[in-house]
Amino acid sequence: MREFENKVALVTGATSGIGRACAVAFAHAGAKISITGRREEGLKETAMKAATSDVEAIVADVTEEEDRKEIVHRTTTRFGGIDVLVNCAGIIGTGTVETTTLEQWDEMFDVNLRSVFRLTQLALSSLIARKGNIVNISSVAGIRSFPNVLAYCVSKAALDQFTRCASLELATRGVRVNAVNPGVVLTNLHRASGMDEETYGKFLERSKETHPIGRVGTPEEVADLVLFLASDKARWITGVTYSIDGGRANTCAR
Fold first, then answer.
1. Which helix (H) or strand (E) holds 33?
2. What SS3 state is found at 133?
3. Does the structure show a pLDDT above 80 at 235?
4. CB atoms within 10 A of CB 64
């Protein structure tokens, strides 16, 4: 079903992983897509998988103000507006309350929270005019606490609260705001943080035990939920932070 026919979806972090899966899913559901990320080659691969001519690929850094303005300007100029904003760009890094530097803390919040806040502001006039909606990609780490990823956990918890606050403020304007909170998903997120292949392999094996369903998730599974929350099927849903984590958020340390 092409339930997003004539709709415009702007997806950040679309060079791989969940962002790519969301962009491809929106395109296959009939949407015009604007995709952005820092790697041109990654955007080309996403556009190829989306298999649509209605795609605007924007090489940009969501932490740069001029880039953020360019993302929204090029999207609205090309397609006339924005119906769905998917804030997927994000990073993870290790560090405790003792070892996390101010630079690491600021970088985590810049990507995972500040960029979301600012892109929301920039896209808001179009979203209000078109009665659109926002889906933020958060994490199980926004719900539960994990050691040695302090800044990541706090940034995602803040993103969840931003989602709830924004949803209340925008409800009367016809704009819904929701978030999804994935557990471990098979993406490049952890590799990009510097985790080597051996450590990553062990992490994935351990994740079979920490996720009650017994496996990690796929980007496509998360994209399915994002599309549902962005669709008219979810027209009475706003302000939720929706777990999709194989039961991970329900578990205790073991």
1. strand 32-37
2. strand
3. yes
4. 13
